[in-house]
């Protein structure tokens, strides 16, 4: 039988060096899946970070853009309103 090319001690070190980052990555992915925010919450956070100044003068559905709802602000800015936000935004807000 040929002698082992790598000692058991070196083998353990190699498994530790390559295995621990893989376990950490797997742990991070599993933690994010089970305890992280959902996709709807991430979309809400993204929308809340959008900053606009003004008061809603009117709202309309743009038929050319797949009947998307838009708010017209008193500053003249058009702001798209996503379906999950429609019930929260009213004229005068």
Provide a quick synopsis of the model:
Keywords: Membrane, Transmembrane, Transmembrane helix. By secondary structure, the chain is an alpha+beta fold.
Explain this structure to me?
The chain has 93 residues and is an alpha+beta fold. The protein folds into 2 domains: 8-36; 52-88, no CATH class. The protein is 42% helix and 18% strand. The protein is built from 2 helices and 3 strands; from the N terminus they run ααβββ. Strands 1-2-3 form a 3-stranded antiparallel sheet, with no helix packed on it. The longest helix has 28 residues, at 8-35. The protein is rod-shaped. The protein starts with 7 loop residues before the first helix and ends in a 12-residue tail after the last strand. The mean pLDDT is 83. The chain crosses the membrane at residues 12-34. Keywords: Membrane, Transmembrane, Transmembrane helix.
Number of helices: 2
Quaternary assembly: single chain
Radius of gyration: 27 Å
Mean model confidence by pLDDT: 83
Which stretches are low in confidence, meaning pLDDT under 50 for 5 or more residues running? none
The global form is rod-shaped
For the secondary structure, the number of strands is 3
- Strand percentage: 15-25%
- Beginning-to-end CA distance, first to last residue: 82 Å
Measured as a percent range, the helix fraction is 40-55%
* Number of structural units classed as domains: 2
Order of helices and strands: HHEEE
Q: Profile the largest sheet.
A: 3 strands, antiparallel
Helix and strand content put the structural class at alpha+beta
Q: Going across the major beta sheet, what is the strand order?
A: 1-2-3
């Amino acid at each position: 039988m040929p002698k082992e090319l790598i000692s058991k001690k070196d083998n353990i070190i190699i498994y530790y060096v390559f295995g621990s980052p893989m376990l950490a990555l797997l742990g991070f992915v599993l933690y994010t899946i089970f305890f992280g925010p959902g996709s709807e919450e991430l979309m809400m956070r993204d929308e809340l970070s959008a900053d606009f100044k003004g008061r809603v003068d009117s709202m309309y559905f743009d038929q050319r853009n797949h009947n998307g709802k838009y708010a017209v602000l008193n500053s003249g800015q058009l702001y798209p309103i996503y379906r999950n936000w429609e019930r929260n935004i009213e004229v005068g807000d």
